[in-house]
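User: Hi! I have a protein structure encoded as tokens and I'd like to know what sequence might fold into it. I'm fairly new to this, so please keep things simple.
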């Protein structure tokens, strides 16, 4: 089913991606597609999974400053910068996935991993703050919708977005 979904995205774009179309292209029943992915957002997050695994390996096990070996504050900066690049690279699919329901972004596996990782680093860097709240607040500016708005509507570059995140971190770290 993922191969069929990837073909649809490659030929018709992510907006044409629908579970019933994927099921038909894969030669399975629509119910099978819904049981496997739940909804369109689940399908898109599954398509993003390979790149996501590489990204997670980089911040969990890779070299510093993104990976272990740097201070928590350095890792937070590196993580947020890398996340901006990750979102920009797959912006179209993330826009569809994150806007499929009001909570799709927050229920996705990647967001939960990002939140846990960031909260852990924040707990180390600033033990006197609520790391879970601050992690959610720092992840808000790297949503696909806000990054899309900043890049497309405001004409900003990712360097400006990263600089803005650095400004937020200086206020909080």
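Assistant: Happy to help. Inverse folding works backwards from shape to sequence: for each of the 173 positions I chose a residue that suits the local structure. Here it is:
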């Amino acid at each position: 089913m993922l191969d069929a979904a990837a073909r649809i995205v490659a030929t018709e774009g992510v907006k044409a991606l629908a579970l019933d179309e994927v099921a038909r292209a894969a030669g399975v029943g629509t119910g099978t597609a819904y049981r496997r992915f739940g909804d369109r957002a689940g399908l898109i997050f599954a398509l993003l999974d390979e790149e996501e695994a590489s990204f997670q390996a980089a911040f969990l096990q890779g070299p510093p400053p993104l990976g272990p070996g740097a201070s928590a504050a350095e890792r937070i900066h590196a993580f947020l910068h890398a996340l901006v690049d990750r979102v920009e690279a797959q912006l179209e699919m993330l826009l569809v996935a994150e806007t499929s329901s009001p909570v799709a972004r927050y229920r996705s596996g990647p967001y939960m991993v990002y939140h846990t990782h960031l909260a852990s680093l924040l707990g180390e860097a600033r033990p006197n703050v609520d790391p879970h709240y601050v992690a959610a607040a720092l992840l808000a500016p790297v949503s696909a919708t806000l990054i899309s708005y900043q890049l497309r509507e405001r004409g900003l570059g990712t360097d400006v977005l990263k600089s803005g995140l650095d400004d937020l971190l200086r206020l909080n770290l």
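A useful reference point when you look it over: The chain has a mean pLDDT of 92. Feel free to ask if any position seems puzzling.
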